[in-house]
Amino acid sequence: MRAGKIIFLLSALLTTVSQTGGIAETSSIASRRYFAEKNAVKRTLNVYNWEDYIAPDETDEDENGNEIIIKGLVSKFEDYCLEEYGEDVTVNYSAFDTNETMLAELKTGKGNYDLICPSDYVIQKMITDDLIVPFDEGSTPNYDKYVSPFVLDKISGIIVDGEEGKVSEYARGYMWGTLGILYNDGFSTIKERGITPVEMQKDMGDWLSLWDEKYYNLLAIKDSMRDTYAVGIMKTYDEELTELYERYNNGELTDDEYNKQVSEIFNRSDNQTLDAVQKDLQDLKANAFGFEVDSGKTDMAKGNMFAINVAWSGDAAYAMDNADEFNEEGADRPGFEPTILKFALPKKGANIWFDGWVMPKSVETNHNKDLAQRFVDFLSIPENAAQNMEYIGYTPVIAGNDILQLVQSWYDLRYDEETESINNDYLNGLTQIATDEIIDLPEDEKENYYYTKDISYFFDGTLEGDLTIDNAVFYLTADMKDRQFDTQYPDASVIPSLAVMEDFGPQNASVLLMWEAVKNTALPLWAYILILVVVIILIGFIIGYKIYRYKLVKRRRIRKMKRAEQEKYSNMLFKTLTSQLLSNNS
Amino acid sequence: MKYKAFRKCLAIPFWLFLILFVIFPILFIIFYAFTDVNGNFTFDAFTSFFTSPVKLNVLLISILIGLFNTFLCLLIGFPLAYILANPKFNKNYVLVMLFVMPMWINFVLRTGALRDLLSIILNACGTTTGEHPLLCTMIGMVLNYLPFTILPLYSTMLKLDKNQIEAAQDLGCNPVKTFTKSIIPQAMPGIVSASMMVFMPTISSYVISDTLSEGKIMLFGNSIYLSFSNSDWNGGSFMSLIMLIIIFLVMLFTRKFQGEKDADRGNGSW
């Protein structure tokens, strides 16, 4: 009791003395926590997530130079549980590096988790293998309210065991993105080969350009089976996709029909397809600079290794930010050339992916289902999702006011940092230009033009208060085209061509073999013959040597035996002679 | 008696270590190599490995690169070690230190730095690392494994019998013959252990080929990793087993080789 009083007094003192909000807040929470913890139920939530995939605690400085702690989402959730539910929750947070290691761990029954965040195709596999339990209906009100209808539609569209909509019962989305092409049109070799930025921008709208000799040795592809397969299949079925694209543009297909057909092509993995994709990928390997998984984004940002990189949208945005930072640092250096990276989503189809929260079966034995659902719902509050987005760089599936405002503050040219609101005066003196005309603008005039981009497909039905769907139209300077904003929220026109890549299912082993064949380096025929000849000669030599040794040993043995016989004989002779002599003497 | 029992007890930690970290893992590998996903006994991994031309080709290429790397390392390391063993050149062991020092720097860091360096050099020559994956990989391999060749060779070179070499020269051997008849046989134990230290790690190496060939050359180590990272534990384990068997065979071969040579030299009793 006494200790509690002292802490309370101390914290009260601190609140009055210190003027900074940070310390005051933490100490008041600390005191509240002290009293609440006494009768709080102690609970533990085991969360298993990707590395660096949630906003952590960070320290910052306020205007007075005092250190304040900005709470990460895990700590925030713990406070939230204490205040709202009177429960003392500890989040036991651990991280995995690949879907496969996580899945193997879960399958072998190791690890005790309540909440895991795998990728789309793994969720599909987990449902088929009966490893996870569905969410209760209405258990995540914030998620239901703020999730983007666009992403939810894609999630529901995945077919599991012949049924649609199962994934949205079992999983709640977290982050999403696309797989596109990150490119650097100012790369030295690109210039040497006389490829203009306009030409390159057009080329990057088509996966086929990666096979073009024009870009020989200038592109890096993903060293990952599924992602590169997604690129290969675009080449293999290019004719069909082109036809679909034309029919869609002529208005013969609705958005839905078009998307269904693209998804069908995208998810083919029969043996015939595998053979064709293998051939195409081997050609791609011959045309490529190399494979990479993680190093590509830094190499692109430095702008010294290759000019084209097949990249996930989040990595692409990260690389652009990094390149911009390098450009700022190097601006004063003589002879420094800035690296401007751009991102393209090929028009005829590309991969869209998402990561989502699922609850493995152990959540029920832990009696943590309500807590796990609460955590997911907590992350889905737009304010928290915005904090996540700011830290991770990937796009959350959550829409809503806070996200819209955050994105506006980053990209919209009308955003006024002082009033923290939209100010249309910023448009004065600028000329509006249509999106497809930007390509012809000279680089140094782009600042004087602006274009609008409507991403209402993402925010539809999630905005409230003063914000309406009209606010989801962004005003951007022309040099923002194909940059961070376009990377994080693709243009509405490409949305119908984005397909979710499903699990290969029983074909997984065959795809793996195909991928190994692509990675494998085949030698020319004469090399195999040469190796065979050398090996045969070597074996012949060893056998010959052994026979020689054997004969040598045998000959020696025979000689030895002969000698021994001779000795024996001479001994006998000696003995008989001596005995005769002795007997004669006697 | 009492002491004897006590001494035996001292070996317990060693045995525990051996069982926990050597015997158990090998048993696990064997178990996974001959079972399927559900843990039933099967030869699937065995047949799929030996019927897959791709996997066999990866093994072949790894062995070739391993042999080539061993050859290059010996070619560079042997004269180097011979020179280093001469106290005239190597005062205070500074030179040896210089050659061994790269080993103290983190392996991945060293490889990454080499990639940047090679990229600069090749760009100046008008080409890129992506166009010459084999060249870059071999440079990386030799640089990384050279210290492993120099050290064992250096220690045998220190023990070279100078009198024998002198005797060979006195008795009319030309330099080539002195080298082949006296120096090489004497240095044989060093050559064998240096080869062992280079050949096997090269085959199973993963980072060097991955980073420096820009992912274009797949060695056996990469192949094993690929299997595990795509949840094919059984195939991966079987390949690891193949790896173990190769190590075992090479050890058997070199031991016999070493033994013979030692016998020829009268077990060094001179």
What topology emerges from the helices and strands here?
The complex is a heterodimer of chains A (586) and B (270).
Chain A: H1 2-17, H2 21-39, E1 41-50, E2 58-61, E3 67-70, H3 73-85, E4 87-96, H4 99-107, E5 115-116, H5 120-128, E6 132-133, H6 141-146, H7 149-156, E7 159-160, E8 163-164, H8 166-170, E9 171-184, H9 188-192, H10 197-203, E10 219-222, H11 225-236, H12 238-249, H13 255-266, H14 271-287, E11 290-292, H15 295-302, E12 308-312, H16 313-330, E13 341-344, E14 350-360, H17 362-365, H18 369-379, H19 382-392, E15 395-396, H20 401-411, E16 415-416, E17 421-422, E18 431-432, E19 449-454, H21 456-459, E20 473-477, H22 484-488, E21 498-500, H23 508-519, H24 525-585
Parallel strand pairs in A: 1-4, 1-5, 10-11, 10-12, 14-21, 18-19
Antiparallel strand pairs in A: 2-3, 6-14, 7-8, 9-12, 9-13, 9-14, 9-15, 16-17, 19-20
Chain B: H1 2-10, H2 12-33, H3 44-50, H4 53-84, H5 94-100, H6 107-124, H7 133-158, H8 162-170, H9 175-204, H10 207-212, H11 220-229, H12 233-264
- Indicate the mean pLDDT of chain B: 85
Low-confidence segments of chain B, given as residue ranges, are 260-270
CATH architecture term of chain B: Orthogonal Bundle
Helix proportion range of chain B:
over 70%
Helix content of chain A: 40-55%
Give descriptors for this structure.
heterodimer; A: 586 residues; 9-stranded mixed sheet; 3-stranded parallel sheet; 17% strand; elongated; disordered N terminus; B: mainly alpha; MetI-like fold; disordered C terminus
